[in-house]
Amino acid sequence: MTANVAGYLLQLLAASWLGVEGYSEFASLLAVQLLCAVPALAMQNVVAREVVRGSSTRAVRAMMWRCAALVAAVAVVLIPVVAGVLNVGVWAAAAALGAAPVLVILSGEQGILQGGNHFRALATVLAMAGTARVVPALVALALGGGAAGALWAGAVGIVGAAIVAGRIARSTYAADQATEHGSDAGSREPAVDTKAVGVMPVLRAVQVQAALMALSSVDLIVVRIVLDEVDASRYSLGTIATKIAFWLPQAVGVVLYPRMAQPTHSARAIRDALSVLSVIGVVAVLGAALAAPLAPLFAGADYAPIQGMLWLFALHGAILAVLQGALLSAIAVERTALAAVTWIGLALEITLMLTFARTIESLIGTAVSIAAVTTTIVAVVVLRTAPRTQLNPGMSLPGGARPDLD
User: Fold this and answer.
1) How many angstroms separate the CA atoms of 227 and 231, rounded?
2) Could you write out the DSSP letters of every residue in 113-165?
């Protein structure tokens, strides 16, 4: 929650300080950065799943560093592409892409804590990482560093966060070993584990996360193509409501994901996750509708034209949060082919936006419609194909957990 609040504060202050003429560039670069964080999100999910299944921290860390090197190489190649597509400077594009490999390492450490059910330590790392990313960026903006300066400052903060996260994960594991030495209970690393963890599971998870992040961010890129600078900035501010509704229930997936990765818990965990996400989404949409009159007070009178549509932006985020929960379950049980539905939805959304959408209303209406159809299809498939494997009452799961028999 702390990390999310810090992120929203950064965007609100950036909208105010950069104005409607400059905020769309910053928002678009943030969208690019979010897309570049896809390997990091996939890394956390895969590491958590492998830890649940008994892989050693040494094996998953070796895989983390291999993936980080691959991400760094891809980021270098993409810098001129992003600069050309978004019509921004190379330095600004490099700022958006520069943190990608470090995020992979940071998320891998978070995955170790998540897979080991060390949620208190994980919450500390998440809060610390969000603060370390936002505070330097705010300082850079306040000093007139612009979009590129803010993103580079945030990247430096992420490096520091990754170092601290690694220390917390190692100390948490060491304390766990000291406390539970000689016991079969708990979630600790096996005494002997020589099995290597390959990169391919991460790549399969990446395409799932990429589809989701692209669907949640592509509108911020398209607006710079189809709208003028002022309306593009207004739309970008509206997407803050989308992000709040999307990331607000993030803890639901974090907590339930280890259960999704266990066959005897998976079906119930998936049902619980989608139900809770739906309820939180309704609350988020109602909250956006009630808080809409306050938007111009925080961001400025120039943004008043979009206040009546904030509930629609929030609805977009709420729907995507449910889609995220469904796709997380697909990663947990290694049924990543389901992401094809999301990729089709993404292609259709881009086509409709570029062909027909020329106003803020039509853009957000298209985004909500495509997200709703895509989420419905994915959720139905996930619920119908959820694993229902049962263990005998006398059997146990990795780490000594008892089966949860539905």
Assistant:
1) 6
2) HHHTT-HHHHHHHHHHHHHHHHHHHHHHHHTT-HHHHHHHHHHHHHHHHHHHH
Helix and strand numbers (H, E) in the chain are: 15, 0
DSSP 202-253: HHHHHHHHHHHHHHHHHHHHHHHHHS-HHHHHHHHHHHHHHHHHHHTTHHHH
> Is 303 exposed, middle or buried, given 0-12, 13-18 or 19+ CB atoms closer than 10 A?
buried
Residue 228: what residue type? D
pLDDT digits (tens, 9 = 90+) for 341-375: 999 999 999 999 999 989 999 999 999 999 999 99
Burial (CB < 10 A; 0-12, 13-18, 19+), residue 369, is: middle
Residues 6+ apart with CB under 8 A from 170: none
33, 97 in Cβ contact below 8 A? yes
Give per-residue pLDDT as tens, 51-109.
888 888 888 999 999 999 999 999 999 999 988 887 778 888 888 898 889 999 999 99
With beta carbons less than 8 A apart as the criterion, state whether 374 and 323 touch: yes
Provide the token pair at 38. 């896809």
With beta carbons less than 8 A apart as the criterion, state whether 325 and 380 touch: no
